[in-house]
Specification:
Length: about 290
């Protein structure tokens, strides 16, 4: 089964997985060659009897730290199995850190990860704003932790890595990766893949940029926010040495405040540009810089 999930920020997550028989056993069934493992900071490999060894069988290594520019392995196992759950919580849940922490998952010892996405985006926090939610595959029940319940089968090995691409050290990361070892996976079992992409094209050519969209939250209307944003955009366009900045907006009365704002900054009406075509619901404006 394959799914393309696009967030309202234009982020694309491609997920491919199978629901062919990977379901758990009935409660009354005894294990048949399977065993449940738990990878955490004390026992990354999920080895039987490998936890609680740092503090006389008590918890002695509850969390890890992750310095800026470094990576840490959360789980690594050689053998056949299925990752059933990934749980993570971190001390710094700022928008910068959520976007700068990169989650990578490798199957079968390959050098290229099958999963590569910012931590926040992978767990459904696409705009850097933590919030409580729950669905069939992901959840953030208290608004401060991350859960993934997508079953992820692997045949020979699995490795889960977190990298800190920010300029700040992450002082605390608590996590566990729960997985099940199996003798053999069904032939129909597919691998889980996740790809994060943010490619909003705002550059028409080397000297021509486009303002794609500007919206102001209701609580900030008529406070000059849009004007400040437009000044910032114009300044950035000049920094990039653009010679022209263009935009498309609506032709209906609802968009008159936006058209008025653009006219006040020197934008003039023009014809379609780029890949746009004439449309009665659209008007086009441009400004030479």
């Amino acid at each position: 089964m394959g799914h393309l999930l696009r967030t309202s920020a234009g982020l694309l997550i491609a997920i491919h997985f199978t629901i062919a028989p990977l379901h758990g056993r009935e409660l009354f069934q005894a294990p048949n060659g399977e065993s449940v493992r738990w990878a955490d900071p004390e026992n990354v490999a999920g080895t039987k009897g490998g936890a609680g060894l740092e503090n006389r069988s008590a918890k002695g290594h509850a969390f890890d730290s992750l310095k800026a520019g470094q990576s840490i392995t959360l789980m690594e196992y050689n053998g056949s199995g299925i990752i059933r759950r990934i749980w993570i919580t971190i001390s710094d849940r700022s928008p910068e850190m959520l976007r700068s922490l990169t989650l990578a998952i490798y199957w079968e010892g390959l050098a290229k990860p099958a999963v590569l996405a910012p931590l926040g985006d992978f767990f459904g926090i696409a705009h850097g704003q933590m919030c409580a939610f729950e669905n069939a595959l992901f959840s953030n029940p208290e608004g401060r932790s991350f859960n993934c319940l997508v079953p992820m089968p692997f045949r020979r090995s699995a490795r889960v890595v977190l990298r800190n691409d920010s300029k700040k050290d992450l002082t605390h990361i608590f996590y566990d990766v729960d997985f099940e070892t199996v003798k053999k996976l069904p032939k129909a079992a597919l691998y889980f893949h996740c790809y994060w992409s943010r490619q909003v094209r705002t550059k028409l050519d080397a000297r021509h940029g486009e303002i794609k969209s500007m919206r102001t939250a209701d609580t900030w209307l008529r406070r000059g926010v849009a004007s400040q944003m437009l000044r910032h955009i114009l300044g950035e366009a000049k920094r990039r040495e653009y010679q022209r900045l263009s935009l498309e907006t609506g032709s209906m009365d609802y968009f008159e405040p936006a058209r008025k704002l653009y006219r006040s900054f020197g934008f003039k009406f023009c014809g379609p540009f780029g890949n746009y075509v004439e449309d009665p619901n659209s008007v086009f404006m441009t400004k030479e810089l």
